[in-house]
Amino acid sequence: xxxxxxxxxxxxxxxxxxxxxxxxxxxxxxxxxxxxxxxxxxxxxxxxxxxxxxxxxxxxxxxxxxxxxxxxxxxxxxxxxxxxxxxxxxxxxxxxxxxxxxxxxxxxxxxxxxxxxxxxxxxxxxxxxxxxxxxxxxxxxxxxxxxxxxxxxxxxxxxxxxxxxxxxxxxxxxxxxxxxxxxxxxxxxxxxxxxxxxxxxxxxxxxxxxxxxxxxxxxxxxxxxxxxxxxxxxxxxxxxxxxxxxxxxxxxxxxxxxxxxxxxxxxxxxxxxxxxxxxxxxxxxxxxxxxxxxxxxxxxxxxxxxxxxxxxxxxxxxx
Length: 319
Fold this sequence. Notes:
319 residues; Chitinase A, domain 3; five-stranded antiparallel beta sheet
């Protein structure tokens, strides 16, 4: 069974084969009593081993990330094979992220779980999963996405005509009110670890400024004169770029005024709405249709490409 999305594994760089019983006992003690057969080679993929330990690790992580749903041993093995052929194919085209790139993605994943990298590592280790196992899956996903998008960029493009045709065939309406927003983020900084009273004090400052500010120029002038305040560069986004809740908030905010203050890790944040104009360049519905069409094209191309590289791979089953 071929899986179109790689997961993770970490092939052992060498297989320890102690000869003397005393060495075997020492190894067991150092590894916490792990059985020797846990490192037996199950499959060789282009000369690289997939061990029973890799399969065990993948099984644990799949169970953790799928809410306890288990995968069959054959499914796990195929995922690991897919991962190896993807990484090898990507290296042929110079797609080989550095360790720091992988660590950065690992940290981003942790942040999405509202923890830091060290905390994510502890979560994994508590379940008997090495962090390298997840990092290997991250590597495979990263290189394959980059490779497929890079090699087949032209065929994956979705034009406005394609979106309109798809919308017509499905009976969906793409024309709806959409805007282009010019926004200036403003942060009233509160040091990490500060008491709640500091946040409340800064929030009162923000509320006071909301009553005074009538334009972005005023916002820039007032806030840059305040202590511990950051005024960011103006950013431009369309309705399709923003979540519904933020769109609703911006649509209720008069141009030149500030959005209500929000408490964040950095302090108290607001947005000065510098401009809002109607646009037909993109709408949330168009973006939704375009993304859906792209995903379908990407998945089909990824599956076909993976089948191709697997056929060319040397896969030897040992057990």
